[in-house]
Amino acid sequence: MDVSGLAPIEQTALLTEYCRALDARAARPILGDPLADATVRQIDHDFTALGATPSVVALVALRAKMLDERIRAFVSDHPDAVVVDLGAGLSSAVFRVDPPASVDWFSVDLPAVVALRAAVVPSHAHARTVAASVLRPDWTANIPAERPAFVFADGLFAFLDKDSVVGILTRITDHFASGVVAFNDYGPVGKANQFIGRLTTSRNASSPHRQWNFPGFKDARQPQSWNSRLRLIDESSAMHRPETALFPTGLRLASRLSRRVPSIARKARVLQYRF
Ligand SMILES: C[S@@+](CC[C@H](N)C(=O)[O-])C[C@H]1O[C@@H](n2cnc3c(N)ncnc32)[C@H](O)[C@@H]1O
């Protein structure tokens, strides 16, 4: 499958899927998603240029695992739930979570990525795709509004500007009657951080690391000031998880340090808000 026509923002889906594929190939995986490896093997692309360092692989795998756990808990409490994956890319989360038949799952992404997804990711009986930009309000049009909703974004918000993230959160709470919104987050990301990230990861102009846009925030309650319907219910750092034992050495040391330095813990957090 040729992916040379994807725009740089769409190519970011290749990095996260490749990370999960590398994790699946590891002797001791963190997430262990064999479908990610099967998906990547169908795509003709130089994945090595994407900047999938061992640390990025570990963090991408672990945040997916953390989000999976949160989705499972929500659908266990709400068997009539809808689950919405914003910027779903090629993720096989629906297969990993394996929700009951009473749950409907929607994977939203830009049309070119949804077309690629249809070609390389198996279809799932309870999942549908939505080919739309989440920057347009009509992405919600065909998603039931009255059922409890778990809306999550794994790796999307970093590439959007703050107004876009605020707009998406508003669209979620305007459309869905109740539910949870969850996303991975890096804490505050200053211009200097973004610049260093680009220098140290990849020189490729279309590298995912060059698409970074979101300045982030320190206090996990900040989104409550953007949207008064949101209430923070969970702030968890990948750096505090037992899987850090499987991290590469430098990242493992950082995870130890993160116990005393909260700014390090914030760099790899998963946040959940009820509405
Ligand atoms: C880093 S990837 C993450 C993909 C997936 N969540 C994962 O974990 O592999 C970011 C995804 O967001 C999608 N995306 C970026 N801007 C978008 C937009 N405005 N509307 C919908 N999807 C978007 C990209 O196409 C890409 O698939």
TrEMBL record:
Keywords: Methyltransferase, Transferase
Listed SUPFAM superfamilies: S-adenosyl-L-methionine-dependent methyltransferases
Protein's UniProt keywords contain Methyltransferase: yes
InterPro entries: Ppm1/Ppm2/Tcmp, SAM-dependent_MTases_sf, TcmP-like
UniProt GO BP: methylation
Keyword match Kinase: no
Entries under Pfam families matching the protein: LCM
Molecular function terms, GO-annotated: methyltransferase activity
Protein name (database record): Uncharacterized protein
Species in which this protein is naturally found: Mycolicibacterium parafortuitum (Mycobacterium parafortuitum)
